[in-house]
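Dear all,

This email documents one entry for the complex benchmark we are building for the journal club exercise. For each entry we list the sequence lines for every component of the assembly. Then comes the predicted three-dimensional structure of the complex as a token string, followed by one or two observations. Please use this as the template for your own entries, and keep the labels exactly as they appear.
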Amino acid sequence: MAKQARAIQTRRQILDAAGLVFDQLGYESATIAEIIAQAGVTKGALYFHFDSKEDVARAVLEEAVTTEGVVPQDSKLQECVDVGMVLAHRVPREPMLSAAIRLSTDLKARALFGTSWTPWIAFMAEQLALAKEQGELLPHTVPEETALVIVAAWTGMEIVTSDLKDGESLQHRVSRLYDHLLPSIAVPGVLARLDTSPDRGTRIWQAHQEQAGRDVETDKGVDLSMSA
Amino acid sequence: MAKQARAIQTRRQILDAAGLVFDQLGYESATIAEIIAQAGVTKGALYFHFDSKEDVARAVLEEAVTTEGVVPQDSKLQECVDVGMVLAHRVPREPMLSAAIRLSTDLKARALFGTSWTPWIAFMAEQLALAKEQGELLPHTVPEETALVIVAAWTGMEIVTSDLKDGESLQHRVSRLYDHLLPSIAVPGVLARLDTSPDRGTRIWQAHQEQAGRDVETDKGVDLSMSA
């Protein structure tokens, strides 16, 4: 493996491990030593890539939440659904992603890193504005307002689901959330054609993985995390 | 003041102070010393009422989230709206309430105290079941599922609002949330009559306060916090 490729892999390995540690212990209780042990890398390797625990957390927040896997659709509203459904598929499978959401709701981490909702809301608002231009949305819909509702409600669903541990998947919950939100914003003809089924995220993600297996470069999608 | 009344007042003073401290520092960083200083009570007074920081936090979680102020309505769906709107009015004004929500999303506190969503979801589900019996809901609506969507989305709104600090009130956001959710569950005739205006919670709460000024005993409503 080329030196650079190996460095990228090690960096990713550290971020995945940090995700697990932050997710289990919270930001404050997590230590660099634990991240090193979890990642199975040397102290030197970690400090080659990151200066501090804060630096690792910042990278998790900056790089975890993406639109990776989501492919352009004729219906921009379907794309908004797809972003939420693919993330719902990925969160329970990617500790780094679930840690990023945990850090976004953690008081201490929020004080250090600021809010991480803005880019995600802005992205959704853009998609909704395009959907509105295409006549997919009811006339009273305000893209910025609806974007905030979707992102906030999605986040609440993730928190409550990870808390209840009642066996129902985040994908089922997010599917139901969209079914509750979309009738107030979509024109009837579009609404009837939207796919909000619970396995939508899994199907999209699997197609993306197959595509990635064939391609040299994978499209990581738009970064929805901290833009700073 | 009677001895008992004074003890109740001191206890409440400690919980309010604890709310402020937990809200500002998070559960882990908060100390008993800080709660005592904030409450302006003696160490003895605090330990008369509570055994430990954990014990104080448990009381905050158990007693903060209530339906206080919400009055029975002909429309049970309106009552569901009112619960969310009154809480949206109270949260920025009651540190204990805002701390309870913060503790419910705090990893460390959650590990110690368990989930606090269940009673809130169960209460909403009951109200929605009554609304359905009365023919207020569309036939496909499942009270338990919709209850979870409302509670989770409300929580997400609170987190994102307290995080964004962009000057828009939680009441405006929760009002908009209901406007996004209700068309998918209410029959048209009921939907048109529901009051989801941003100042709904304030109006209800003020009427309740005036009532409380006249009465000796105030109805604290149903406890929506931890039932354990």
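Observations: Chain A has a mean pLDDT of 91. Residues 122 and 144 of chain A are 7 Å apart (CA to CA).
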